[in-house]
Design a protein that fits this description.
By secondary structure, the chain is α+β, with helices and mostly antiparallel strands. Helix content is 38%, strand content 25%. It is elongated.
Length: 446
């Protein structure tokens, strides 16, 4: 016997439209439910299947007889007389369950291909373990491991997050998002910079310390487009929007370079690099900077150097010019400062660093052999130097050790004699005045 139910079919189609589920999916679920209901009937066939006409809603049950190999040997119409009522009662919960499953599948399919994308949600719940974001049809999970340290997540606040994983569970899709992933930076710049979204400008690399600082390397496929300027925007408007979304996290934008040495130098901005030496075997880049640029290149607690290393993929070793000169010569700045100029056995002036370093001649010093900033003093023979010839000076002789002619010596001697005679005359005059005063009698005194 067949069962025809247009009202039931109309209701089924209405549910399919409201829930966004295909009618065929609901009919298939209903057929499976009816088979289970049929087998609970007395004298039901061991094997059976149900057909539902999608135009009329007619339901039929067919019993089957199988051989030992599982092949159908006989098939007959075994639809119960009151199967319409049985179908309505037995299939209700099954259909509802199938609707819920179909909705979960649709939600999963909607987000399954969006890993690596950015979503905007409203914070619903936050505790020490995780934060829940309402994305509309589903909720996203923001675990503590994916949160930014010291970032607050206030209830009902809007928040952008990066999808890192979409899991399929019995309760529906579980979407895991992140606020600390470097991919969030790239997606935020895609939203703010049209040149990135249309492919003219590319973000080649990104290194991030969430909540503190980020470095990105950008490249332009159009020589007429400045990649750094495009990302910064007019008066910094574009990068400011990204920084605001990141709650004040600083973003450094550097131009990408194919040359590794040049890329390392750019990655250390805002420090100015003097030289980069690459060691391909160890993957180490030795960076030389001016002494006053050393702290800027390293950054606070080494942050600038760490981010540059992650951005470029090279292990970066930063040295100042003084440190490099010390390593190459084996002489420390203290040894240079405490050194002295001496004459060697050949009578040549050389600078001898303290601590037994290799002496530097005047010629080598003039060519940059000495430390920067230390000037060579006038070459004079130090006292007691075995290699220097002694110089005998006479009274009145010039300081440079040269000997005056005999006439000059005689003139100097005559001047000395005149001075001595004048002194004797002054002494005699003083003695006479004393004697006169001594001869005054007491009654003649005033």
């Amino acid at each position: 016997m067949s069962t025809t139910n247009f009202e039931f079919l109309d209701a089924l189609q209405q549910i399919a439209r409201d829930k966004g589920i295909a009618v065929e999916t609901l009919l298939e679920a209903l057929a499976n439910a009816l088979v289970a209901a049929y087998k609970r009937q007395p004298d039901a066939a061991e094997e059976a299947f149900v057909t539902i006409d999608s135009d009329s809603g007619e339901i039929r049950v067919y019993g089957q007889e199988l051989d030992e190999d599982g092949n159908v040997v006989r098939e007959w119409d075994d639809t119960p007389n009151d199967f319409g009522r049985i179908a309505a009662q037995a299939a209700k919960q099954v259909i509802l369950q199938r609707i819920r499953e179909a909705e979960r599948d649709l939600k999963y399919e909607e987000y399954a291909g969006r890993e690596g994308d950015i979503v905007t949600g409203i914070i619903q719940q936050s505790d020490n373990r995780y934060t829940l974001l309402d994305l509309g049809k589903v909720e996203a999970l923001l675990p503590q491991a994916e949160q930014v340290p010291y970032e607050r997540y206030d209830h009902a606040a809007r928040l952008k997050a990066y999808i890192v994983e979409v899991r399929k569970t019995s309760k529906g899709p579980q979407i895991v998002v992140s606020r600390s992933h470097p991919g969030l930076i790239k997606r935020l710049f895609e939203l703010e910079v049209p040149e990135i979204s249309n492919g003219v400008v590319e973000i080649k690399a990104c290194a991030r310390e969430p909540g503190h600082r980020t470095k990105i390397a950008v490249w332009s496929n159009d020589p007429n487009v400045d990649p750094v300027g495009a990302c910064v925007g007019a008066r910094g408007a574009r990068v400011r929007m990204v920084t605001n979304e990141l709650r004040g996290e600083k973003v450094d934008i550097v131009p990408y370079a194919d040359d590794p040495a040049e890329f390392v130098a750019r990655a250390l901005q805002p420090a100015r690099v003097k030289e980069v030496r690459l060691d391909e075997e160890t993957g180490t880049a030795t960076v030389v900077v001016h002494d006053f640029q050393l702290s800027l290149a390293i950054g606070k607690e080494g942050q600038n150097a760490r981010l540059a290393a992650r951005l470029t993929g090279w292990r970066i070793d930063i040295k100042s010019e003084t440190q490099l000169a010390e390593e190459e010569s084996g002489v420390s700045p203290v040894d240079w400062a405490e050194g002295e100029w001496l004459r060697n056995a050949s009578g040549e002036m050389v600078f001898q660093p303290a601590g037994g370093g290799v002496p530097v001649s005047m010629a080598e010093w003039a060519q940059g052999g000495g430390p920067e900033g230390l000037e060579a003093p006038a070459p004079e023979a130090p006292e007691g130097d075995a290699g220097a010839e002694p110089v005998t000076a006479t009274p009145g002789a010039p300081a440079d050790g040269s000997v005056e002619p005999d006439a000059a010596v005689a003139e100097t001697t005559a001047d000395a004699a005149v001075a001595e005679t004048a002194a004797d005359a002054a002494v005699a005059e003083t003695a006479a005045e004393v004697a006169d005063s001594a001869d005054v009698a007491p009654d003649e005194a005033p």
